[in-house]
Amino acid sequence: MNFFKAKQRTPSEIVRGLRDAINKLDVGPPGSETRRKASEDVTKGLQQVKGLLHGDGDPGPELVAQLATEAYAADLLPAIVKSCAKFDFEARKDAAQVFSLLLRRQIGSRSPTVEYIVTREIVVYDALKGYEIEEVALSTGLILREMLKHEPIARILLNSDQFYSFPHYIEDTTFGVSCDAFANLKETLTRHKPMVAEYLEANYDRANLKMMMNLLRDKSRNIQFEAFHVFKVSLIPEFGLKVFDML
Fold first, then answer.
1. How confident is the model over 64-82, as pLDDT tens digits?
2. SUPFAM superfamilies, per this entry (predicted)?
3. Is the pLDDT of residue 153 over 90?
4. One domain for residues 17 and 73
């Protein structure tokens, strides 16, 4: 029997430790021991959060609920997205999985993480802004894609000024980033059809249509293919005549 087995950390301790480690990523000069230790602690903390949410060791629903509550109270999700570029590669992958697992969590018909993010819109905007940093773009892009699966979050982005950043991220970035940005544009415009129909009826104009038509002529066949699927949304019967008038 191992009498010296380490005591398992509580959800509160895990979240607090991870939050503190994220805060220390900018403490001291680049390459310093403080930053190196903070990076290691971030990686370890994300692994622990992911493991608990994933059910490693059969933690039970009470511990998962406590972890989620602590994460909301500490504003852990905004901190993860904002600082994701400072994480190492494995930590970025774990960060995306943490978002995915939390977003799937439901209590009856409620989705607590979706409800939380709706009150913290900056999480959505910072995830989109990740396309400005190539090294982290695919990780924050995956986080954004997980969020956009939920209509209340997709509605936030669709009705924001930040939504119009997509053309820049699609046209003025590297191929990989461009394709990921287009995948999230498609996710925004095709998953929640009634919401998008309402938006297009009120906001679809010549500039948006021109952007989509230009993308349909892009040199990349992959981008052409994705543009076609998005473009089809504008041709649904409710407002097809309006679009044809623009053409």
1. 999 999 999 999 999 999 9
2. ARM repeat
3. yes
4. yes
